[in-house]
Amino acid sequence: MDSWKWYVYIIQCIDKSYYTGMTWSPDNRWAQHLSGLGSKYTAKHKPEKVVYLEEYEILEQARLREKQIEGWTRGKKEKLISGEWFKW
User: What are phi and psi for residue 66, nearest 5 degrees?
Assistant: First the structure.
C-alpha cells in the first residue's frame, strides 16, 4: 500500500497577504481556492499563486507545521518563502 503524502503550502493573495494551508492533493486544493471554495479567507482575498510547498509523510507533522507557520509574522513567512530561513 502506498503511503499518503501531505503538503503544507503558502498562497500569496492578490492583496499580497498570505494564506497557509494543508492538503493531500495540492493541485485539487489549488483549484478549490481558485473557485472560491477553498477557504473563507481565499474566497475574500483571491489567491494569486502558491509561493511555498513542503511535503510530509506523517499527517500530524504536517498539521503541526501548518499551525506553526500560521503563527509566524509576515517577515518570518517571507524569509521561509525566499529560502533565507535556512541560511546560517
Answer: -60, -50
**Residue 87: its pLDDT value, please?**
53
User: Is residue 1, in this structure, part of any structural domain at all?
Assistant: no
Whether residue 53 lies inside any domain: the answer is yes
Cell matching residue 83? 529560502
**Model pTM greater than 0.90?**
yes
Task: Tell me the residue range of the domain where 29 lies.
Answer: 6-86
The count of structural domains within the chain is 1
Burial of 10 (0-12, 13-18, 19+ CB in 10 A): buried
CA distance 22 to 8: 4
